[in-house]
Amino acid sequence: MAMATVLITGCTDKSTLQKPESPAYETDAFKNYWYSGLAEINTYNLEQIRYGEIHSGKAVLIFVSEDFSKSKHVKLDNPDSGGDDKVNILKVNFTKNFVTGIYPYSMMLSVFTPIQYFDSPATPKVTMSAQEWCGHYFTQLNLNGNSYNLKSFSYFESDGDVDTSVKKYVLEDEIWNLIRIDPVFLPVGEFTILPGLFHTRLHHLKVEPMKVTGSKNVNDSTTVYTLDYSDRTLAIQYENMPPYKIISWEETLISSKGNMTTKAVLDKSMNLDYWRKNKKEFNHLRDSLGLSPTNY
User: Fold this and answer.
1) Between the CA of residue 213 and those of 30, 41, 71, 117, what are the distances in Å?
2) Average pLDDT over residues 75-102
3) How far is 260 from 26, CA to CA, in rounded Å?
4) What percent of the chain has a predicted confidence (pLDDT) above 70?
5) Strands, E, within 169-231: which ranges?
6) What is the pTM (predicted TM-score) of this model?
7) Among 11, 76, 107, 110, which is disulfide-ready with 96 (CB 3.0 to 4.6 Å)?
8) pLDDT in tens, 277-287
9) Alpha carbon distance 128, 141 (integer Å)
């Protein structure tokens, strides 16, 4: 596949960008892979930092293409009649499961990003939920013009219930999809970003714009894309060739008391119509993905 280079710096206005001569999403290879009627399921061995310790667990990244409603921000039940309201999106469902002491954490992030990124250059919706024995938490971002409507609900008094808006910027959470659509869209240099919802949840932070620097370190077979914040870094390693599979990532919290790093490394990968595999006869597929029969 021909590679194109596009420098994305400011990222609040992508209309100034030039479309690559051959975007990855217009190639037959892309269409054959992502429009096959299957999802790509990837499981990762997770080392999650929480409460100052490393906790082992599992992370899962599930990527699948869907037909999405521009107006309702939901998957279309009848895409053939969607008309101009229909947009092709790449969805990632990102889960983390780990145990801290006696009680478990279950976290899930869903991100919906237009595949034809130059025609609809903004992720319209992100949701995140977290459950643990103290209670649960939910946040949703919906694109509305030049801002995101943000609703958040929490059992913590300090977080409370939130119904507000934040100016539209690049989302940290859409980076996972941009890698898979075409890494050419990854922003480099200094720009403004809305930080990831997993991070803001775990550290009881407001979802608000901040400065970050993006960079790429290209090796023979993989690239590491890094976001450098003032107090943390997120480094994602992916394959250089389509479909740009994500191999690992590290998130490091920078502190005067010592840095601590969450790590995840790819364990198993499978392309599967998992929504049709919901009978007991398919339980063995969890073993194929390195998952226990009942957990995660």
Assistant:
1) 29, 30, 33, 22
2) 93
3) 41
4) 92
5) 170-171, 189-194, 210-218, 222-228
6) 0.93
7) 107
8) 999 999 999 99
9) 9
